[in-house]
Design brief:
Immunoglobulin-like, globular, seven-stranded mixed β-sheet, single chain, four-stranded antiparallel β-sheet
C-alpha cells in the first residue's frame, strides 16, 4: 500500500473552519521539525506539546520515504519505530516520543523516512458553529546519515554530484550524492543582475541516489541567459545552481 502525502507541507488540516482564521492556530506543537541519526545513534527524541485547554490524542508512525518518477512515496518500514505509538497529552503538558532504530545501518547511502504525527478525533463534540473538528498532521523528515555525506566547503554544499535541468516550467534534480539536499529560496537572476524570487520558502528535498522535480513558474520578467540561485541545506548563503 502506498501512502500519498504532500511532503512540502509540514502541517495540513483535515478540515478548515471558515468563520474565523484564528481557529487555524495549531494546538498540537512538535519539535524539532527534522531529525538526523548519526551512524552510531540508536534513538532520537521528539516532543509533542499541547497548547490547548483540552486533552489531545495523537498517533505517531514512521514510514520509509523514497522518490519515484519525480514524486514522493511513503511505504511501511520496520527500520524505525516511534514509541509510544498512541498517546494522550493533557492540556498544557508535553509528551516525549522516541524514534528507535531497529536495525544497524550499513548502507553507504543515506536512508530516509517520514515521522507522521496525526492528531486523533477527540471524544468531545465538534465545534458547534461549523460541525467540524480541526485535525492536524505533521510530517517530519528523518535521515539516517551515512559515514560520508555530501561535501561542504567553506560553509557551502558542493553540488558536483547533483544534476539540474529546467524544462517546461519544471526544475528536475538528479542527486547522485550519498545524502539528501534540501532546496529553498529559489530565485532567477537576469543577465543584468535583477533578482526575481520564484519560491520564497521550501522547494523540496532531492534524496540520495534519487530524482525529483518541481513546478517552477516561468515569469515574463525572466530574460534568456540568466541563472537560477537557491539555498541548499542549512547553508548561510544561496548559490548558483548548475542548471543545464
Amino acid at each position: 500500500m502506498q501512502y500519498m502525502n504532500k511532503l512540502r507541507q509540514f502541517i495540513c488540516a483535515s478540515a478548515v473552519s471558515l468563520y474565523s482564521l484564528s481557529s487555524l492556530a495549531a494546538s498540537l506543537q512538535v519539535a524539532p521539525i527534522s531529525v538526523s541519526f548519526a551512524p552510531q545513534e540508536k534513538a532520537k527524541e521528539i516532543w509533542l506539546t499541547n497548547t490547548s485547554e483540552q486533552p489531545i490524542r495523537a498517533q505517531t508512525r514512521v514510514l520509509a520515504w523514497s522518490q519515484v518518477a519525480g514524486q514522493d512515496q511513503l511505504s511501511p518500514t520496520r527500520d524505525l519505530v516511534a514509541s509510544p505509538s498512541i498517546t494522550e497529552i493533557k492540556a498544557g503538558e508535553q509528551q516525549l516520543i522516541r524514534i528507535i532504530r531497529m536495525v544497524p545501518q550499513n548502507a553507504a547511502v543515506e536512508q530516509t523516512y517520514r515521522l507522521l504525527i496525526d492528531e486523533l478525533p477527540s471524544s468531545g463534540q465538534p465545534d458547534a458553529q461549523t460541525g467540524l473538528q480541526l485535525l492536524l498532521q505533521y510530517s517530519i523528515p528523518v535521515f539516517m546519515q551515512p559515514a560520508a555525506g555530501i561535501a561542504v566547503r567553506n560553509g557551502v554544499t558542493q553540488l558536483n554530484q547533483v544534476e539540474f535541468q529546467y524544462r517546461n516550467s519544471q526544475l528536475a534534480v538528479k542527486n547522485n550524492a550519498g545524502s539528501h539536499i534540501r532546496i529553498s529560496e529559489l530565485s532567477y537572476i537576469n543577465p543584468n543582475g535583477e533578482k526575481i524570487p520564484l519560491i520564497n520558502g521550501l522547494v523540496g528535498y532531492a534524496l540520495a541516489g534519487q530524482s525529483m522535480r518541481w513546478d517552477v513558474p516561468q515569469l515574463k520578467q525572466m530574460l534568456p541567459g540568466g541563472k537560477f540561485e537557491a539555498r541548499i541545506n542549512s547553508d548561510g548563503l544561496a548559490q548558483t545552481l548548475p542548471v543545464q
